[in-house]
Amino acid sequence: MEVLMEYTSIVLKQDEGVAKIVLNRPEIMNGVDQTMCDELLAAIDQVARDHEVKTVILTGSGRAFCAGGNLGSSIYTIKDPRELGDIILKFGQVPINMRNMPKPVIAMVNGAAVGAGLGFALACDIIIASDKARFGHVYLNLGVQSDCGATYFLPRLIGVSKACALIFTGDIIDAAEAERIGLVNQGWAWPKNPSTRG
């Protein structure tokens, strides 16, 4: 698989018409900061314009897909509300640009997809989850406003009632439950017969 461009927070590869964007900060469970956000926007733009790319895969390295915002990032020390607002808008541009991609985008969720990570996964056309995948709209637990499109995509995908339950409780659900309620399209690496699932 050919590496298309060097980034510091993500890896972008291409092989036989498939571009793979890998969130690559496993030491912080691929937490999003300004650098990762900028690189994601650049990579999305690059593969959208590349006529050789027919399909895009988004996944994470290590044990997480994306555990949301990097709480150690300097973004959390910003006092100017206008500056902070500009950054949050840029974070929100990532799922918008993925959704507007003129080719299919598949989320391969290999671990935790919570907060912004949930929004990134929901913005993809198809979500495939491993048996280690976990999903959660955890903004309530942090006392912050939702971002990255989760409140837009969730009710459209699983219905208003189920979306409200996840948003209002901050609960984290496993891959089997996510498939049951229609949040993911299918799973890999766990039994297909529901009666054999743990």
Mean pLDDT: 83
User: Structural class from helices and strands?
Assistant: alpha/beta
Helical content stands at 25-40%
Largest sheet: 7 strands, mixed
Strand content: 15-25%
SSE run: EEEHEEHEEHEEHHHEHE
The CATH homologous superfamily is named 2-enoyl-CoA Hydratase, Chain A, domain 1
C-alpha Rg (nearest Å): 16 Å
Lateral strand order in the biggest sheet: 1-2-3-4-6-8-11
What is the third-level CATH name, the topology?
Answer: 2-enoyl-CoA Hydratase, Chain A, domain 1
Number of helices: 7
The total count of strands amounts to 11
- Terminal Cα span: 35 Å
Number of domains: 1
Poorly predicted runs are 190-198
Give the second-level CATH assignment, the architecture. Alpha-Beta Complex
CATH classification class: Alpha Beta
Shape: globular
Structural commentary:
The protein is of the alpha/beta class and 198 residues long. The model is unreliable at 190-198 (pLDDT under 50). It has helices at residues 34-49, 81-99, 116-122, 139-142, 150-158, 160-169, 175-180; strands spanning 2-5, 10-15, 18-23, 55-60, 64-66, 105-109, 112-114, 126-130, 134-136, 172-174, 186-188. The protein starts with a strand and ends in a 10-residue tail after the last strand. It is globular, with a radius of gyration of 16 Å. Helix 1 runs parallel beside helix 2, helix 3 (116-122) packs across helix 5 (150-158) and helix 5 packs across helix 6. The longest helix has 19 residues, at 81-99. It has a single domain, classed as 2-enoyl-CoA Hydratase, Chain A, domain 1, CATH 3.90.226.10. Strand 3 (18-23), helix 1 and strand 4 form a beta-alpha-beta unit.
